[in-house]
Amino acid sequence: MLAPAFDICGLRAATATLTADLLGRYIQAFLATCAQREEVFVSRDLSPCAAHVARNVSMTVRALGFDVVDCDPAPSPALALAATQGSGCAIMVSGAPAAQDSISLQFFTPSGALTCAQATDIAQGANTPYAPSKTLRGGQDYRDIGAGYVARYLNAFGSDALTNITVGVYEHAAVARDLLSEILTALGATAIPLLRAQDFSPADPEAIPDDTRALMAELCGARWLDTVVSTDSLGERPLLSDEHGRFIGGDHLGVLTARMLNADTICTSVACNDVVRRIDDIATVHFTPVGAAHISAAMRKLQHDTPAARVIGFEPNGGVFLGFTADLRAPLTPLMTRDGIFPIIATLAAARLARMSVGDLVAGLPPCFKQSDLMSHIDPAKAERLVGDLSTSSSARRTFFSDQNRADSIDCTDGLRVSFEGGDVVHLRPCRRPAGLRILTHANSAQRAFDLLTAYRGKIENAVK
């Protein structure tokens, strides 16, 4: 059973351990960070357990004297936008498939996702006993926040931005599926629903099953579709294919979005595809440790230090933060949380403006291919010891990487990332959740990246024996 845990991403617990007291202490601590905010927006994903927990969240908020705005199921970026526009706070409830029996709560302030300082305050404040009122002092209202989210992109991109594009919308158990089709249609595209799920079995954009990939390729290959799109269950990570049904990496979508907006600065994690280091039309790229919180923190610091910077942030899986007001048909205001629909719209709009297919647009980026694997059977302590030794000992590195060209650079921002002459990159990261050793390889061809991954899996196995 999953023990309750809290970090900057929110509160996670098994449904059986999410007691009224536990829920109350964390919500009470969160609301303490939202001084003078009277409204709290509450939404959820499509999981069956999320509906029950969302009701409990609303009752807890009202018992603490705050008004609740019930938003029904909605993508988390739409919820964050509603909180920003309404100068309120927000709580997103999400579940997992029944077999996993877990629930998560995400917290948003009027400025977006939690900062590290706010998360620390909540963790400390949750030690304070829960002190609800005996009556529900706060009120409750219902609001359709999807309309504001659709208007955000319709106003910015225009009703003809995606004209003559036929889009397959992969309708697994993603809470954004209907809103995504509505936005695409509003922007002029023809949206075709595909594989609508009737149960809660969300697909992972980074692990699409082979049979689903084959079907998407067949549909695109028959020229029925120009692209296939979707998001993860919360609407935070994008899924987009080219005209052949081949899915595009989230980090490539982030770069294309930055170009489309004429951004001058990117904040992303050190695990991002090496393409971001090879483009020459983005003035500055800041690399952070892995995790949305680090990217958000880097963006906020940059906004403070250089207010005129046109900065966006994204994770390797493609969730995009917008940190400046983009000048499109109408101003597109900042939204400092992961948005999976935004890079889909931006990439398709960029392709149409350039009169190119998605595949040709991606082909215009410098060639760089990435492979990744989590060696989950490796004890985290052994993983940390191996990476620590390689990070601090040049002789250990020479032995371990003896079959590579000379190292160009070494980066220890998060794990050990070594770039070699000729374009090869090997990145080793110890992981605690999920536990193991993550290995990432980058190269100038897909086959070379795969060969590097295979080779270094073997080297790691020998090194940790």
TrEMBL record:
Quick one: a GO biological-process term for this protein? carbohydrate metabolic process
Q: What family does the entry list?
A: Belongs to the phosphohexose mutase family.
Task: Show the Gene3D superfamilies listed in the entry.
Answer: Alpha-D-Glucose-1,6-Bisphosphate, subunit A, domain 3, Alpha-D-phosphohexomutase, C-terminal domain
**What domain of life does the native source organism fall in?**
Bacteria
- Protein name, entry field: Phosphoglucosamine mutase
Pfam families linked to this entry: PGM_PMM_I, PGM_PMM_III
The residue ranges of the Alpha-D-phosphohexomutase alpha/beta/alpha domain are 10-113, 250-366
Annotated organism of origin? Aquimixticola soesokkakensis
Cofactor dependence is on: Mg(2+)
Do the record's keywords include Phosphoprotein? yes
A GO molecular-function annotation: phosphomannomutase activity
**Keywords on record:** Phosphoprotein
